[in-house]
Design goal:
With about 350 residues, the chain is α/β, with parallel strands linked by helices. It has helices spanning about 25-30, 55-65, 80-90, 105, 180-205, 215-220, 230-240, 270-280, 285-295, 325-340; strands at about 5-10, 45-50, 70-75, 95-100, 115, 135-150, 175, 205-210, 225-230, 245-250, 255-265, 295-300. Strands 1, 2, 3, 4, 5, 6, 7, 8, 9, 10, 11 and 12 form a twelve-stranded mixed β-sheet that branches. Helix 2 runs antiparallel to helix 9 (about 285-295). Helices cover about 30% and strands about 20% of the residues.
Length: about 350
Amino acid sequence: MPIRRITTLGALATATALLLAGCASGDAGDAGGSGGGGETGPLSAVMYSSNNETVIGVVTDAASAHDPALKVDAVAGSSGPLLQRIESEAAEPAADVFYSAPAAVLEPYADFIEPYRSPEADAIPEELVDPEERWTATNTHVVALMVNTDQIEGGEPPTTWQELTEPEWKGKIISADPAQSSTALTALYGAYKVLGEEDFAKLAANLEITESSSNVYPAVAQGEYAVSIGYESNIYPYVAGGQAGIEMVYPEDGTFVEHDAVLIVKGGPNPEGAKALVDVILAKETQEENLAQSFRRPSREDIDVTEFVEFTPLDDLEIVDIHGEEDVQGRQDFLSYWSAL
């Protein structure tokens, strides 16, 4: 039985031992280690991860099912502090893999990344693989509204961002602060692009902002608010759990996607273990299990999402692109505008 070791970065750090498997497929033997008879010895990898315990557990279990020869230690924490830790450790890296954050968050840390194209990337759209092969998307987040119809007169959920600008929604919508939450930034920057400055100001006037993004979904589930703004993977557990009155709505006037990614740390102590672990994270079986257990929409094209969850296919959604060349500056301008509201 594998033992999972997850060290949490921060005051409440916990450590438990873990023997975990990785996909020690051809890379380790072909890379020029002990070669010949295929005996390369045990592999190991240290993974810094901003994912929750369920997602990390899926990865470690998937690795275990592949090859118990790979020993993996997971260090959990928020993406910002973990990436800053990778930067501070650059002279003597402690991590082998970072999993995961969007490309826009990873870009400032490009000097600390070792390019690697996993064989599993062949099943992932090219636009989700960094052209310089520094990172590869692991899953797709889709912005949606979490609605408690019991808190709405008439029980009809809102279906558009435009509808949420109306005065009757004032004080009934909760969101995290886009200056503190990447999820809220994706959602509200997108809404700003859809609505324009004048109507977005009306939406902003209706919002209740919480400093803790973890409050957003429970507050609607408990009936404190009628609507929250977030990712489908965080909303769907309430729907799948059958809570009465809870619905997930994709705004008809446009929703937005973000892609988390995995990368190898430059100069990490276990380069072959790192490759094996990235292969496991991107493997079809792992992405299917993460979809089933944590509702992370996969980056791979060979998985039918509707076989696992009641998500609307991406092709059936009105998706507004928020990743154009102008959007890097656009997000910065939006945050300046937001702080002035």
